[in-house]
Amino acid sequence: MVAKKGTIFLFMAFLIFAFVVSSNEIKKMSKYGFKGETNDVVMIVDTETARLREAEPFVPLFIYLNNSTKETIKAERGSFTLVTPDGDKLPLPSYDEVTKGYGSDKIGNDYTYLRKIEDYASISFLSSKMIPKVCFFPNPSNKSVLYDKVELPNRSYFKTLLYFPNVAKDKNGTYTLIFEDQISKIKVEVPFIIEWLKK
């Protein structure tokens, strides 16, 4: 009986370990794109722009968020958290913090660079309708406006540029972007790496 209980305990421990490992598994969509999914909510993180900003005080992450659940989920500034390789949990900063600490010119350059990148992720959401003009960090070079309180009904998605403090600088390791709807408590985590462009 003791041996049987010991076997059951080891089996349960293995299942818990397997769940933790799988939940932190890096799932690549492209060379710089990473994907996470929970309960029909998908988030994609693209790091191609981020890798150019290793020495900057803020790092840009281009994201897609798709909702295929039967309920409406909400995304706002408090919905996103970045976990660094050191385990630091960073909230999304204000727009003013980024323009002052990073620079309006660099934000404009990031948007220019993004326009040159192939949109490989939208094809994953062909059955969803894109919500346009979502903008957590408006481009100072054009007439985009702040739009950071988003409702995502069933079969809809948006894409937008986010900035987080670059406290780890050019450190290697796994980052994790977390989205959590504060009402439904739906939570999606995307582990990813940044292949910093060494100069």
Could you characterize the architecture of this molecule?
The chain is of the alpha+beta class. It has one domain (27-192): Immunoglobulin-like, CATH 2.60.40. It is 20% helix and 31% strand. The chain has three helices and eleven strands; from the N terminus they run αββββββααβββββ. It has a five-stranded mixed sheet with strand order 1-2-3-9-7, covered by helices on one side. The longest helix is centred in the N-terminal third of the chain and has 22 residues, at 2-23. The model is unreliable at 4-23 (pLDDT under 50).
Compact overview of the structure:
With 199 residues, this protein is of the alpha+beta class. Helix content is 20%, strand content 31%.
What share of residues are in beta strands? 25-35%
Give the total of beta strands.
11
Q: Tell me roughly what share of residues is in helical segments.
A: 10-25%
What value does the Rg take, in angstroms?
A: 18 Å
For the record, the CATH architecture stands as Sandwich
Global geometry = globular
Spans where pLDDT lies below 50 across 5 or more residues: 4-23
Distance between the termini: 63 Å
Strand order of the largest sheet: 1-2-3-9-7
Mean pLDDT: 88
| SSE order, one letter for each helix or strand | HEEEEEEHHEEEEE
Summing up helix and strand content along with how strands pair, one would put the structural category as alpha+beta
- The CATH class: Mainly Beta
Largest sheet, if any?
A: 5 strands, mixed
Q: What is the CATH topology classification name?
A: Immunoglobulin-like
User: Can you tell me the number of structural domains?
Assistant: 1
Tally of individual helices: 3
